[in-house]
């Protein structure tokens, strides 16, 4: 089968070639793949830990068609991959937290991913997509929407509470749409103007939110403390602007602020999310679609694109 692979990281080292078809699960024909910061960083060589096997096929977010019957999945089903590999054999897995499995990792990093004509993966990692979802939204669920959903769930949101979201990338947009679905009052820090969301290029000093979702990290993280209400919650799931932040710890305890980390989501989260997305209107802006085999052109666009995501077609 045709696949993209590299023997050492770097976009210049990415090759298109014939590789052996994998046979360790259910066969899926790939029809679309997402281009995430994760994929970008993996190909660029910014993620080097645990990349396996070598040569390596990247790609951690795909939409495909099942080519054979499984126990629950039927041949012809439109499916996505739950992107965490897990052993189902540790206390994290036993408690339904596969995303935290001690022996697991990210599909496409610790295993070959989906930038290829076919993949083969165990049925425990395959989920059927509801009919009403268009292909481009569906391919964006496995990482972006799932991360957004778990982050919101962690905040245990109540109707009409104020949520402030930092950044309107893929995950931020899904967070905003899901927060609206949950009946929250949504505010966002973003350079872009988003329809139906109150966006600010700079957050007003008097804005106090019940929930702040801040995946940006760096010095912007301490800003969350200024914009969260007493007894409010701060959720983080990323370090886009840096790993370290200095903050006034007194502000945390004197206001009884709760800070939560969130990463990806569990299979139960994905199951719940697909049920929600199957009955309500969700969509993500697309910047441009490319053939997967033209990934080098897409690479240049990745950093310069203004709004929306890059999708690969096969
Ligand atoms: Zn485990």
Principal-axes geometry comes out as: globular
Please give the largest β-sheet: 7 strands, mixed
Counting helices, strands and paired strands, the structural category is alpha/beta
Beta strand count: 17
Q: Count up the domains.
A: 2
Strand content: 25-35%
Q: CATH-wise, what's the superfamily of the largest domain?
A: Medium-chain alcohol dehydrogenases, catalytic domain
Present as ligands are: zinc ion
CATH class of the largest domain: Alpha Beta
Helix content: 10-25%
Average pLDDT works out at 94
Distance between the termini: 12 Å
- Low-pLDDT regions: none
Order of helices and strands: EEEHEEEHEEEHHEHEEEHEHEHEHE
Look up the CATH topology of the largest domain. Quinone Oxidoreductase, Chain A, domain 1
Radius of gyration: 20 Å
The CATH architecture of the largest domain? Alpha-Beta Complex
Number of helical segments with 4 or more residues = 9
Question: What's the short version?
Answer:
This protein has 314 residues and is α/β, with parallel strands linked by helices.
Q: Describe it for me?
A:
The structure is a single chain. This protein is of the alpha/beta class and 314 residues long. It folds into 2 domains: 2-140 and 284-313, Medium-chain alcohol dehydrogenases, catalytic domain (Quinone Oxidoreductase, Chain A, domain 1, Alpha-Beta Complex); 148-261, Rossmann fold (3-Layer(aba) Sandwich), CATH 3.40.50. It is built from 9 helices and 17 strands. It has helices at 37-44, 91-94, 135-138, 141-154, 170-181, 220-227, 249-254, 267-277, 295-304, and strands at residues 2-5, 15-18, 26-35, 62-66, 78-81, 84-85, 105-106, 118-121, 126-128, 162-166, 185-189, 198-200, 209-213, 228-236, 258-261, 286-291, 309-313. The strands form 4 sheets. Strands 3, 4, 5, 8, 9, 16 and 17 form a 7-stranded mixed β-sheet that branches. Strands 12-11-10-13-14-15 form a 6-stranded parallel β-sheet. β10 (162-166), α5 and β11 form a beta-alpha-beta unit. α4 (141-154) crosses α5 and α4 (141-154) packs across α8 (267-277). The radius of gyration is 20 Å and the shape is globular. Bound molecules: zinc ion. Zinc ion is lined by residues 86-87, 89-90, 92-93, 101-104. Residues 86-87, 89-90, 92-93, 101-104 line the site of zinc ion.
